[in-house]
Amino acid sequence: MGYPVPVIQPMLATPGPLPAEGEDTAWGFEVKWDGVRCVVNASGEGALQLMTRAGNDVTATYPELRVLGERFRRRTAVLDGEIVVLGPQGQPDFGLLQRRMGVMNPRRAAQLAMEYPVHLMLFDVMHLNGRSLLATAYHERRAVLAGLGLGGPHCSVPAHMEGHALRAWHATLKGGFEGLVAKRLTSVYTPGVRSPEWRKTKHVNTIDVIIGGWSEGRGALTGLPGSVIVGVAEPGGLRYTGSVGSGMSDRERRELVRYLDVVARPDSPFVEPVDVPGAHWVEPKLVAEVTFSGWTPAGHLRHPVWHRLRPDLTRLG
């Protein structure tokens, strides 16, 4: 008989630089995985539940991960991890993962699991056999996680490095990974909080933006988004930060316009006037990740390039 499994939101990292030389001995370093963050709830009866950061249950989307539930028969747990699809060289391929996202039909999900199998990277444990580990130090939680024996065909507990920030940085850069997450060895787990005790550093400048509208393309792109009008959420509302069209593939434009049609609205969602001729406005529900070189004096993104839609951070319901 299992213990009750609590609902725990994932702890979030703050963007920032690597710990300085001499200070890095107090930190542990992990690969920043380019995938979908999820909390794994194991009931102790062989069942497994996967919850995204947005609170969506995606268990049915990734049927190949159900076998992990057998590892937790007669023991309960809440774990933190990232779902990825690994490319030929072993690095996460978010483009392939996108083909798996949002699929709830069991037959279709099973077919895609054969074509693009996912892998679950586990890097924390917050609750085990009825005992909360939230107040336990990060390095102790990592030791508990390593002792659970969870490695397998669709699941890994990647090693972390304590100290040696520059060595970890260069290793992830050479390996083609998105970046590095530094976690203070003494840090406790604070659910739902973006904490300075966890620090994420990417090898490129990226930002999550909210789509508030779009402009129609020309020629072959007629009827499709030529660019999207984006902003960032602030206490006073959605602040306009510019338009992004560069880097978006035709396939992404066709997929995106279907989402945009669902959330159309008659007026602008931005707090300030936005002068974009012929703009189509949408409810600010869709989140995208873009790369950029910096900020203009007006507070707009400089040289933004589309990276990907973030359906894992979007809740359309």
What do these coordinates show?
The protein is an alpha+beta fold and 317 residues long. The protein has helices at 94-98, 106-115, 138-146, 165-174, 250-262; strands at residues 12-15, 27-32, 36-42, 48-52, 77-84, 119-128, 131-132, 155-156, 161-162, 179-184, 194-202, 206-216, 225-234, 237-244, 280-281, 287-291, 294-295, 301-302, 305-309. Strands 3, 4, 5, 6, 7 and 8 form a six-stranded mixed beta sheet that branches. A hairpin with a 5-residue loop joins strand 17 and strand 18 (301-302). The chain starts with 11 loop residues before the first strand and ends in an 8-residue tail after the last strand.
Topology diagram in text:
Layout: E1 12-15, E2 27-32, E3 36-42, E4 48-52, E5 77-84, H1 94-98, H2 106-115, E6 119-128, E7 131-132, H3 138-146, E8 155-156, E9 161-162, H4 165-174, E10 179-184, E11 194-202, E12 206-216, E13 225-234, E14 237-244, H5 250-262, E15 280-281, E16 287-291, E17 294-295, E18 301-302, E19 305-309
Parallel strand pairs: 1-11, 6-8
Antiparallel strand pairs: 2-9, 2-10, 3-4, 3-5, 5-6, 6-7, 10-11, 12-13, 12-15, 12-16, 13-14, 16-19, 17-18
